[in-house]
Design a protein that fits this description.
Elements lengths: L3 H8 L3 H9 L6 H14 L5 H8 L4 E6 L5 H16 L3 E6 L4 H13 L4 E5 L9 H4 L5 E4 L9 E4 L2 H14 L5 E5 L5 H16 L9 E3 L4 H12 L7 E4 L2 H13 L9 E3 L16 E3 L2 H17 L7 E3 L3 E3 L9
Parallel strand pairs: 1-2, 1-3, 3-4, 4-5, 5-11, 6-7, 6-8, 8-9
Antiparallel strand pairs: 10-12
Helix pairs in contact: 1-2, 1-3, 5-12, 8-9, 10-11
The structure holds alpha-D-ribofuranose.
């Protein structure tokens, strides 16, 4: 098998010039680049990523830990991460924690053993094993979405307070006065912040917050479905509901259909995330856009900036949510 030395000899350049051509790390004139590329073709030279890693002490691989969920939100963010990695010449090692503590720690250990250059954590607030970072103290980390808050890591958060407020203000603007909220699992930052935004909008508009109309869900279809069923079972019902994510809004739509309640005529509904499916529901879902691909790209850029400047101050970046009005919300009849 040809080595970098064989390529250098055939192209009549130094091995470091071959390396610069391969890695685009320095300007090399077009003629010399051409000679090197010809030699590579002639010798069928395939560079070894392993050899390069050993020399440069970087693997150009990023790790990512995600919580398993049927929620397409995560797939859309991962796509953004992969795309950005690809654009920048990095590989991505993706691990699904399935919300399981053992698996989270085992995956983390495996990524660290593989010497990934940095890790993106996008999973539940499950604790990482104590001692893990004693053995790998300097691994750069970025927390995206709603990971644990108290870690030594840069943080990208979703602006949930603003988003919850936007969703609720939209319903208030349409004339709704009786508004309920299906929250995510309380205690998780994304769920708490969106609820806080709902409460702020209600209070600012001078509307009562009825505790029996705030039902805790689980950020999944089933939770949205049972929360809406619980709302519908009450003697007095709201005319509009803000669901803390699109998955719960979809589950809620099903409960409304089963109860023969038409949306938006008898009940307006707003979700959160703007997953691709939201546009295809009947009626199409009014929701809050989270820039998912942008979130993915931003986590990669933030992680690479941390890798380059490990001692720079911790960064906390907040995304800007945006209201997307579709068919599931209207003026109360
Ligand atoms: O994990 C559930 C939710 O958290 C997602 O729908 C997204 O909104 C995220 O913030």
């Amino acid at each position: 098998m040809a080595t970098i030395k064989d390529v250098a000899r055939l192209a009549q350049v130094s091995t470091s010039t071959v390396s610069h051509v391969l890695n685009k790390t320095r300007f090399v004139s077009p003629e010399i680049t051409f000679r090197v590329e010809q030699a590579i073709d002639e010798l069928h030279y395939a560079p070894s990523a392993l050899a390069r890693s050993l020399k440069s002490n970087e693997t150009r691989t990023l790790g990512m830990l995600v919580t398993a969920s049927a929620n397409p939100f995560f797939a859309e963010v991962v796509q953004g991460v992969e795309q950005r990695c690809f654009e920048l010449g990095y590989s991505l090692a993706l691990c699904n924690t399935r919300g399981d503590k053992e698996r989270l720690n085992a995956s983390m250990e495996m990524l660290l053993q593989k010497r990934v250059d940095g890790i993106i954590l996008m999973c539940t607030q499950v604790r990482l094993g104590a001692g893990l970072f004693d053995r790998y103290p300097s691994v750069p980390l970025v927390l995206a979405d709603w990971g644990p808050m108290d870690m030594e890591a840069d943080l990208i958060q979703d602006g949930g307070k603003q988003g919850g407020r936007l969703a609720t203000e939209h319903l208030i603007g349409l004339g709704h006065r009786h508004i309920g909220c299906i929250t995510g699992p309380l205690g998780k930052r994304a769920a708490d912040e969106r609820l806080a935004g709902f409460k702020t909008a209600m209070t600012t508009a001078g509307l009562p917050i009825r505790p029996e109309w705030i039902i805790e869900g689980d950020f999944e279809l089933a939770g949205g479905n049972s929360a809406m069923s619980a709302l519908l079972a009450q003697a007095e019902r709201p005319t509009a509901v803000f669901a803390g994510n699109d998955m719960m809004a979809m589950g809620a739509l099903r409960a409304l259909a089963d109860a023969g309640i038409s949306v938006p005529q008898q009940m307006s509904l707003v979700g959160y995330d703007n997953i691709e499916l939201a546009h295809y529901l009947v009626p199409a879902l009014t929701t809050i856009e989270q820039p998912k691909a942008g979130l993915g790209a931003l986590t990669v850029d933030t992680l690479l900036a941390r890798i380059k400047a490990p001692d720079s101050p911790r960064r906390v970046l907040t995304l800007t949510p945006e209201l997307i009005v579709r068919g599931s919300s209207q003026t109360p009849v």
